[in-house]
Design goal:
- It is a single chain.
- This protein has helices spanning 16-27, 40-54, 68-81, 105-133, 154-173, 192-205, 209-220, 229-240; strands spanning 7-10, 31-35, 58-61, 87-90, 136-141, 179-186, 251-254.
- The protein is an alpha/beta fold.
- It folds into two domains: 7-187 and 228-253, Rossmann fold; 189-226, no CATH class.
- Strands 3-2-1-4-5-6-7 form a seven-stranded parallel beta sheet, with helices on both faces.
- Helix 3 runs parallel beside helix 4 and helix 6 (192-205) crosses helix 7 (209-220).
- It is globular.
- The model has no long low-confidence stretch (mean pLDDT 97).
- The structure holds nicotinamide-adenine-dinucleotide.
């Protein structure tokens, strides 16, 4: 147990990668603040299950992180409830797939607001709390699309490149504050976000989800298997460890060789 008495806020942790990260940090003894959308009863059952499985306090906040004031409110609540905030994982994200000439303006704004602006607003609110206690870890879940592009994902690719840039700026500003800031850049992780893309592709091509999953991997990843949310969680635990205290400003790929090409 390396994170006992530390408090971790994981945005977008009712599902997918964020849930995997929240479980991994709870497994190391951290107090956890869950956030994200979903059925209230299911979220409450999830909150209770994580708390009892790992024996840590877990709270949930339904902040809509597309709204700047909600991001700041969430960070403040997390810090007040647990009397400090040690770990911020900016994970919540959405996708929209369309060619630029028909990319809906509102979808652009929504992807930028959540995938990029919320990362800025959360870091802005969390940094004073971490400075006050003289220790912190900020982990921004970017993507292989923070390092390279794919067609039809203009808002997502722009936002994720922005997250990698913002991560570097924060790392420089906090280099001597015992606060590290890093981005994790996953390739394909089989989560509801990707399952929705597979379903769309299957209906567009008249195929099925299984064959679209194989094609999806073959298009981008030399390694033809999905990364798991648990593996991203293990990476987050390492970034929070003392061994990683000088690891800052990095964009760490976990992508089956996607950006090695
Ligand atoms: P997901 O759809 O399974 O989970 C997204 C989470 O964000 C959910 O908890 C959802 O409720 C929450 N969320 C959505 N809108 C929100 C809002 N406005 N305010 C607060 N929470 C909100 O997606 P995922 O695949 O687990 O993705 C998590 C992160 O990982 C995203 O930033 C995504 O871009 C990134 N990522 C995913 C993959 C992949 O292959 N799945 C690859 C690289 C990067």
């Amino acid at each position: 147990m390396t994170l006992t008495a530390k408090t971790a806020l994981v945005t977008g942790s009712t599902s997918g990668i964020g849930l995997g990260v929240a479980r991994a940090l709870a497994g190391e003894g951290a107090n956890v603040v869950l956030n994200g959308f979903g059925d209230p009863d299911e979220i409450e059952a999830l909150r209770q299950e994580i708390a009892s499985t790992y024996g840590v306090p877990v709270i949930y906040d339904d902040a809509n992180l597309s709204v700047a004031s909600e991001v700041a409110r969430l960070v403040t609540r997390a810090g007040e409830h647990f009397n400090g905030l040690d770990i911020l994982v900016n994970n919540a994200g959405i996708q929209h797939v369309a060619p630029i000439e028909s990319f809906d303006d509102e979808r652009w704004d929504a992807v930028i607001a959540l995938n990029l602006s919320a990362v800025f607003h959360a870091m802005k609110a969390a940094i004073p709390l971490m400075k006050r206690q003289g220790w912190g870890r900020i982990i921004n879940v970017a993507s292989a699309h923070g390092l390279v592009a794919s067609p039809f994902k203009v808002a997502y690719v722009a936002a994720k490149h922005g997250v990698v840039g913002a991560t570097k700026v924060a790392a420089l500003e906090l280099a001597n504050e015992a606060i590290t800031v890093n981005a994790i850049c996953p390739g394909w992780v089989l989560t509801p976000l990707v399952e929705r893309q597979l379903a769309d592709r299957a209906s567009a091509h008249g195929t099925d989800v299984t064959s679209e999953a194989t094609k999806l991997l073959q298009e981008k990843q030399p390694m033809l298997s999905f990364t798991t949310p648990d593996a991203i969680g293990a990476m987050a635990v390492y970034l929070c460890s003392d061994a990683a205290r000088t690891l800052t400003g990095a964009a760490l790929s976990i992508d089956g060789g996607w950006v090695a090409q």
